[in-house]
Amino acid sequence: MSATIIDGKAFAAGVRAQVAEQVARLKEVHGITPGLAVVLVGEDPASEVYVRNKGKQTVEVGMNSFEHKLPAETSEEELLALIDRLNKSPAVHGILVQLPLPGHLNSDLVINSIDPAKDVDGFHISNVGLLGTGQKAMVPCTPLGCLMMLRDHLGSLSGLNAVVVGRSNIVGKPMAQLLLGDSCTVTIAHSRTKDLAAVCRSADILVAAVGRPEMIPGDWVKPGATVIDVGINRIERDGKTKLVGDVDFASAASVAGAITPVPGGVGPMTIACLLANTLTACCRANGLPEPEGLTV
Fold first, then answer.
1. What sign for the dihedral angle of Cα 82, 84, 85, 90?
2. How far is 181 from 183, CA to CA, in rounded Å?
3. Which of 194, 190, 268, 182 is nearest to 226 (CA)?
4. Count of Cβ atoms closer than 10 Å to residue 135 Cβ
5. Is the pLDDT of residue 236 over 70?
6. Is 201 exposed, middle or buried (0-12, 13-18, 19+ CB in 10 A)?
7. Structure pTM?
8. Which are the catalytic amino acids?
9. Helix, strand, coil percent content, the chain, rounded in steps of 5
10. Using an 8 Å Cβ cutoff, are 265 and 245 in contact?
11. Is 185 helix (H, G, I), strand (E, B) or coil?
12. What pLDDT score was predicted for residue 1?
């Protein structure tokens, strides 16, 4: 069996096109332009690349992009004051504080200072609680992208066995909640799970989000399963730097029914869903119908 490759790059382009179309309509009909504010503290090279890409794609879909780059020594008081101004700004519909923050800043305090309605990362404790109780929430971007791709490939997820390997607050836990919301039978597995291989083999849907390069081999995959690989790990191989996922792609692709590659799978969907969340937040703030197909 040769797995179908789920092309996240192409799927993300489609999502961005949908967002751009809806943004153009908002401007034309209602005179509203969605705005996304991104806050970067310090000079982490990877974070700077992410922020630059987010800003570029925000502008490309017709939204307003507000970038706030602060020095690493910025105090908590100064950062919270900026977030307060963004919370109050009618031009800003989404706020994202790029993580990780410098060590002297309390990430939980900072994230929970964002207006939950503008929390387009879906990390605020209010949005976590709303998602967990099946209510309308801002949904974390990476799990939302995974769900979109699963729905597109499989149609109904109802009744399928889903295993999420990884229990992070950013991916693992919200991914499990979204799958439960689509009536899957969900297992969250992790480093202390007994007989992890057997648990993975039970999955019709296997989501790998553990952060260990190529940890899941093909013989852990149920024949015909759909594999979503969230991992992005940089390794050295044959004297070259290479990006790999949490799944051993070659062996898994010979068993799975469908699989996301790394790179080019889940990664591109994260920023696309950030834009979708900003659009959703804008529509909610203005009492307008939410964009179809771009929210849970």
1. positive
2. 5
3. 182
4. 9
5. yes
6. middle
7. 0.95
8. 54, 98, 121
9. 40, 20, 40
10. yes
11. strand
12. 56
